[in-house]
Specification:
GO cellular component, one term: endoplasmic reticulum membrane
CATH class: Mainly Alpha
Largest sheet: 4 strands, mixed
CATH superfamily: Cytochrome P450
Family: Belongs to the cytochrome P450 family.
Structural class: alpha+beta
Number of strands: 11
Strand content: 5-15%
Subcellular location: Endoplasmic reticulum membrane; Microsome membrane
Strand order of the largest sheet: 1-2-9-6
CATH architecture: Orthogonal Bundle
InterPro entries: Cyt_P450, Cyt_P450_CS, Cyt_P450_E_grp-I, Cyt_P450_sf, Insect_CytP450_Detox
CATH topology: Cytochrome p450
Number of domains: 1
Membrane topology: Peripheral membrane protein
Length: 500
């Protein structure tokens, strides 16, 4: 047992070394005079897996801001910038985008091809793919897809009528997710998913799995915030089963359309064009490489995942607020009916564009319940913050807490009040451009924002025209946000629905 005291001293020495290592690391922001909150050894104070107290942590960090343009946080021992000054945020997202173009997402091209998509790529690969895909999301292309969305909304209306014969109090979260699953499944994969009739179909099942951050997925996603470690461990972002499912669906759909010369003016057709034809970078006058089948499948996958959950969540919160504010609901219903009458009673692309108050309701829902709590960028070189002596060092993550900005009383008085008039054109124009960031901003903003807005507005127009939404005994007041979702959501949302 002579070795035992030596072992004790070795353990004590190692613990002391770890302690002083972290104390030194955690002095980073204090030494630079940046406001911060004390981190905890060894995790720091930012939970990157999105399933923990992510919202609560950013609320605490945002509150300690002062005249400094940003607040300091830590992911394990890595310093993180929490940008709070709107001009700095504009620099990061727009003006100095070349320094902050990367998101630092992890992907695994060899074993997990659907993870190599527009959201996860950085650098030249991202730039080339963005240039290829941007023309597919123009207003003209959206107009082509519009009839498909209306067709699904009509099936949605029929399915909801049947459901209400059995129960008037239903979970609108699940109901809306099935609607957007069918819309995106049709537009991104050219398939009739029928999740409105069969909520347990393959598309709905895999959609749930892709967004799950509970259990082992939570640990994996934390590790993926350290890309080099994730690559060393060979982690998959998505399972082999999920890769096989989505890539198989895309391959079968494309082969069938090409063999039978079928065109549907949807996202699949646009991807087929990118796969088969050279595209031109108009700015630099150079040809861009065609998409491979794997790249095509990855873009269809991310369009599906990003589109169905965010749009259904926005509609869910809108219906929740309309149920709690019947006067706003009635005002919106009057606009929908009036505009449709002008368009011969039809829900057309032009009619949706004329529904100004509907757009305000969607924007206010996005403000109050922004699906993404924060935007993320990585400094590609040392960056001196204008009008300060502060430097954001190369490799430092920059987080933009858009949820906190959307609830800042300086920009939105009485922020917990649901008030669509905040987004009247003249009121919106008077605010700083960076006070509304639900779709991001700059060259890396959400490429599908037009589609998302269109899908949400069509769904809400159909619902509010035909049904009255009321609070029920099961309605969560106040809302308790889920800790197992990658977007700001709830576990369920029951409302009472009355056919008009």
């Amino acid at each position: 047992m002579e070795w035992f005291p030596s072992l004790i001293w070795l353990v004590v020495g190692l613990l002391a070394a770890v302690y002083f290592y972290y104390k030194r690391k955690y002095s980073y922001w204090k030494d630079r005079g940046v406001p911060y909150i004390e981190p905890s050894i060894p995790l720091g104070n930012i939970p990157w897996n999105r399933s923990g107290n992510f919202k609560e942590v950013f609320e605490k960090l945002y509150k300690v801001r002062n005249e400094s343009p940003f607040v300091g946080g830590y992911f394990f021992s890595q310093p993180v910038v929490i940008a709070t000054d709107l001009d700095l945020i504009k620099n990061v997202l727009v003006k100095d985008f070349s320094t902050f173009h990367a998101r630092g997402e992890y992907s695994n091209e060899k074993h997990d091809p659907i993870s190599v998509n527009l959201v996860s790529l950085d650098g030249p690969k991202w730039k080339l793919l963005r240039m290829k895909l941007s023309p597919t999301f123009t207003s003209g292309k959206m107009k082509f897809m519009f009839p498909t969305i209306v067709e699904v909304s009509e099936r949605f209306n029929q399915a909801l009528r049947e459901t209400l014969k059995e129960d008037s109090e239903i979970d609108v979260k699940e109901m809306l997710a099935r609607f957007t699953t069918d819309v995106i499944g049709t537009c991104a994969f050219g398939l009739e998913c029928n999740s409105l009739k069969n909520p347990n179909n393959e598309f709905r099942k895999h959609g749930r799995l892709a967004l799950d951050t509970s259990g082992i997925n939570s640990i994996k996603r934390t590790i993926m915030r350290i890309p080099k470690l994730a690559a060393l461990l060979g982690l998959r972002v998505f399972s082999k089963e999920m890769n096989d499912f989505y890539l198989g669906i895309v391959r079968q759909t494309i082969e069938y359309r090409e063999k039978n010369n079928i065109r549907r003016n949807d996202f699949v057709d646009l991807l087929i064009d990118l796969k088969n034809n050279d595209t031109l970078d108009e700015e630099n006058k150079v040809k861009l490489e065609r998409l491979t089948m794997e790249q095509t499948g990855a873009q269809a996958f991310v369009f599906f995942i990003a589109g169905f959950e965010t749009s259904s969540t926005v509609m869910m919160y809108a219906l929740y607020e309309l149920a709690r504010n019947p006067e706003i609901q009635e005002k919106l219903r009057n606009e929908i009916n009036t505009v449709q009458e002008k368009h011969e009673g039809r829900l057309t692309y032009e009619a949706i564009k004329d529904m100004v108050y509907l757009d305000q309701v969607v924007n206010e829902s996005l403000r109050k319940y922004s699906p993404s709590l924060a935007l993320r960028r990585i400094a590609q070189e040392d960056y001196k913050v204008p009008n300060t002596n502060l430097v954001i060092e190369k490799g430092t993550p920059v987080m933009i807490p858009n949820y906190e900005i959307h609830h800042d009383e300086r920009y939105y008085p009485n922020p917990e009040k649901f008030d669509p008039d905040r987004f009247r054109p003249e009121v919106w124009k008077a605010r700083h451009a960076m006070t509304f960031l639900s779709f991001g901003d700059g060259p890396r903003n959400c490429i599908g924002l037009r589609f998302g807005r269109m899908q949400s507005r069509v769904g809400l127009a159909m619902l509010v025209k035909n049904y009255r939404f009321e609070v029920s005994k099961k309605t969560p007041i106040p809302i308790e946000f889920s800790r197992h979702s990658r977007v700001l959501s709830v576990d369920d949302m029951h409302l009472k629905i009355v056919k008009i």
